[in-house]
Amino acid sequence: MRNMSGKLLLVVFSTLLLTAYSDDQSFNDDPKLKIPQPYVWMKSIDDNKLLTTITIPGTHDTMALHGPPKPIDYATCQAWALEDQLKAGIRYLDLRVNKNLEIVHGIIPQKVTFPEVLNIVQSFLNQHKSEGVLMRVKPEGNNKDKSSVQTQIQNVIKGHQNIWVKSDIPTMGEARGKVILLQKNEFTLGVPTFGTDGPDDYIVTDLDAKKRKIKQHLAEAAGKCGFKQVVLSYSSGTGLPKLKPLTPRKIAKDVNPWLNGHLKELHAPCYGVIAMDFPGLDLIKTTAEKNIQKITKTKKNMIFSM
User: Fold this and answer.
1) Residue 79, φ and ψ in degrees, nearest 5
2) Looking at the domain assignment, is residue 197 inside a domain?
3) Nearest to residue 253, comparing CAs of 279, 273, 233, 275?
């Protein structure tokens, strides 16, 4: 009887353990990061590989953690604070910066400034020198305000040796321990970029149509990788301005698990940057592992062992 009870407890425990690790973690809206140590996946990338030949997990509107107090939140795009995004393996940041160097999402302030973001990233890189972080700055405001953003950022980063401002494409070896700035419209510091998304592709009225667009964008990204631009693709979206009840959170909850499965079926050498809303650990890991040709099979409870 005692043996039967022991076997029953073992079966129950094993079932609970398997269930815990079989849950898809492609989507995350829990602000608490739950990993034993940072996922520093770039250390496995060869030093000679150009940054334009690497698949990189990123976040869209990286600092958009604060939305308006409305029943439908169209503004919040992420759950983890920046420190935790970096620890989880995110290596591309999408920053919207106004004339005061405040990070914003549209008209909504995100309670942090560009210098503060830079300090957080540099602190992470000082501790994890195998990694590099790509940073796209999008100036916000009227034309005059936008033109002042780059000048102010140049003043902030003056004297920093670990910030890449050249248009040359760095190798992984050159990128380690550095912030790699990316060009965007009025912001001309750093590496040139190519976006696969069209002007209105962020507007989502149908989730299946959004997935078809993402497929097309990733196929295009695969063909553009390896040239003189960092390729950017976004899986994010919103129901605005169509006033559809599809918030970034609702879209990501549906799209992220699908994207995780779709990426596992793709086999091109590179897909560039994939910027996401509310990415979970599984999706980040799947994206980063596109850089590994032969992935050793490990137990699911070891996926973040170093």
Assistant:
1) -110, -40
2) yes
3) 279
Domain assignment present for residue 8? The answer is: no
Domain-located, residue 78:
yes
Strand 230-234, strand 193-195: pairing: parallel
Longest dimension (CA), the chain: 80
pLDDT tens, residue by residue, 16-58: 333 334 478 999 999 999 999 999 999 999 999 999 999 999 9
Domain count, the chain: 1
Q: What is the pLDDT of residue 22?
A: 47
The β-bridge partners of 232 are 195, 273
Looking at residue 293, what is its pLDDT?
A: 57
Q: Which element (helix H / strand E) includes 136? A: strand 133-139
Tokens of 280: 């979970």
Residue 176 lies in domain: 29-291
Which whole number is the average pLDDT over 200-219? 97
Paired tokens of 252: 């990501």
Residue 303 has pLDDT above 60, yes or no: no
What percentage of the chain carries pLDDT values higher than 90? Answer: 81
CATH code for position 189: 3.20.20.190
Distance CA 262, CA 10 (A): 35
Residue 16 lies in a domain: no
Give the helix/strand (H/E) hosting 16: helix 2-22
